[in-house]
Amino acid sequence: MNHQLVLKDVTVSYSRIPAVHHLSASVRCGSCVALLGPNGAGKTTLLKAIAGLLPLETGAIRFEGHELGTKPSRTIAYVPQREAVDWDFPITVRGLVEMGRYPSLGNWGRFGAKDHEAVEEALHVCDLEDLADRQISALSGGQQQRAFLARAWAQHAEIYLLDEPFTGLDRNATEAFAAAMRRLRDAGKLVIASHHDLKSVEALFDQILLINGELVACGPTAEAFTTQNLDRAYGMHIFSGHAHHHHEHA
């Protein structure tokens, strides 16, 4: 039952400029995938296209035999960068997580036992039970990030698209978020997170999808996260996450 997300010849333009060109790759459920590449490589654009928020110019995105990317789907949860969220919005953590249930409430919008169960489970998975009644404005950055992950879990999505979830988190917050991410993976979900800190890739992710407008590499971190692939993506020599600009040509 290893379901795959399959990208086939995907081209996406942003402000009429192709940001992602003819990209083909596939990733399996039950993995945490780092979406890597230099600034302007098309990472956010690709996440939005998979989420159905940007139209494809060429190609198709498929999951379990269905075509994705044509419109937002309940199968997919998209968690934007923290700056994109209005944190002063007056809502509690539980209220935010309950929003993940709204698409499934049917005609009358009644919150049933199943919905409450999904919300409690999400709070538990993301380690937010003690913070459930707190306003989201009062949370730390890491707690805010987990609250959005919990909303996505409550939605019972299969694919989690996270835009730079670790940005600005300290070590403890990173570890707490990574633990929640691994729980999703162990439940058979697919997590794809754009990420820019190359030093932490091996600790946090078991697969990588490395792009620079086009596909550079896709596969298990142990095999695909190589100096050679990073050179090709970033156009400079990178060793274990530290960039070195060399004058001599290798």
**Overall number of strands:** 12
- Give unreliable regions as ranges: 240-250
Strand order of the largest sheet: 6-7-8-3-9-10
List the helices and strands in order: EEEHEEEHHHEHEHEEHHEE
User: Mean pLDDT score, rounded?
Assistant: 89
Count of DSSP H/I helices:
8
Rounded radius of gyration (Å): 18 Å
Structural class: alpha/beta
User: Beta fraction of the residues?
Assistant: 25-35%
Largest sheet: 6 strands, mixed
* N-to-C CA distance: 44 Å
Principal-axis shape equals globular
Share of residues in helices: 25-40%
Summarize the topology.
Blueprint (H helix, E strand, L loop, with lengths): L3 E11 L2 E12 L2 E6 L6 H8 L7 E6 L2 E3 L7 E4 L13 H7 L13 H13 L15 H14 L4 E4 L8 H16 L3 E5 L6 H4 L2 E6 L1 E7 H4 L2 H8 L2 E3 L2 E3 L6
What key phrases describe this protein's structure?
250 residues; alpha/beta; four-stranded antiparallel β-sheet; 12 strands; 30% helix; 28% strand; disordered C terminus
How would you describe this protein?
36% of the residues are buried. Strand 1 and strand 2 form a beta hairpin. Mean pLDDT is 89; it is low at 240-250. With 250 residues, this protein is of the alpha/beta class. The radius of gyration is 18 Å and the shape is globular. The strands form three sheets. Strands 6-7-8-3-9-10 form a six-stranded mixed beta sheet, sandwiched between helices. A four-stranded antiparallel beta sheet has the order 2-1-4-5, with helices on one face. Strands 11-12 form a two-stranded antiparallel sheet. It has eight helices and twelve strands.
